[in-house]
Amino acid sequence: MRIVRLANFVTPTSGGLRTALYSLGQGYAGAGHEPVLVIPGADHGEEDTPQGKVITLPGVHVPGLGGYRVMLRRRPLLDLLGRLDPDRLEVSDRTTLRWTGAWARAHGVPAVMVSHESLDGLLGVARLPGPALRWLAGRLNRNTARDYDRVICTTDWATREFDRIGVRNVDQVPLGVDLDLFRPDRRAPHGGPGVLLVCCVRLSLEKRPQRALTTLAALRSRGVDARLVIAGDGPLRERLEAEAAAGGLPVTFTGWMSDRGALADLLASADVVIAPGPVETFGLAALEALACGSPVVVSSSSALPGVVGDAGVAVAGEDMSAGVVELLGRPEAGRRAAARARAEMFGWDAAVRGFLAVHADL
């Protein structure tokens, strides 16, 4: 089965979506299918990779988003879809690529939309009034469900915005984590005194990385000897670096970490990981931390409380220090064992089987 997958907002340095696309494609190929991923780039390109063939089409650079590009021209993508002749279409963009559902329907190609983001949440970040938010999100979600045979959501939280409007063609399939790469035995002394906090996040408005600095400042004001490592990049980095320096906060900014092994080492060495995003529909970075044996403080407004379970603590608001203190109050061996046990419920093999089951059912 040739599964053509489309995604915008993917770069060589992007995070969770890029990881999910790679892991699912690798699983599809391992199961004997032919995955083809089409993403935007600076130029035309085509490469055979472990996740299958990856084709780049020239995309428009989006200012202020840290290097993201978007395939806006329809004709080159339409021509490519015609040449690829897919058996299935899988789309990971509910905004700029939703129109491809109509193409699939017109050509008799079963199509799936993967909900990697919450429209309720993203529109909430834009601070639309409640009634307007619900109306607009409901309209867009109904259109998505109409244009695609199935919608895949990864958590109960992500599914709820479709349940609210009575959409029925929704499947729930959790994503996974690389349990061989991210593991507790990578833990090493973190080379400094006190508590090591790690925040692995894109430095953009909707991810709320500011909360990590707020949490660190609150902990230090309470006498907790804590320091913070922020792994990630984005348009807010310069502002956050200036704020940390002005406040005299011990923060290290690593930028985007291309070496996944080094990222796993960092996550495993953390005492507590902070996942500040308020509208995360799954939260792969938090799950990777759990797989490394590091407990996670998460935003109570996101899907992450359902992902981390008792291996983490959910808190509301900008200051997440109460969650950090609660986790540090648990015996270290117990909190680390609970984190790993929770992560072991989310393997990529199960995620691949779940996605392929949806495609087979079509």
From TrEMBL:
Domain of life, source organism: Bacteria
Biological processes, Gene Ontology terms: carbohydrate derivative biosynthetic process
Enzyme class: transferase
Domain Glycosyl transferase family as annotated: residue spans: 197-328
Tagged with keyword Glycosyltransferase: yes
Domain Glycosyltransferase subfamily 4-like N-terminal: 15-175
One MF term in the entry's GO annotations: glycosyltransferase activity
Record-listed E.C. numbers: 2.4.1.-
Annotated keywords: Glycosyltransferase, Transferase
The protein's name in its UniProt record: Alpha-1,6-mannosyltransferase
Annotated source species: Longispora fulva
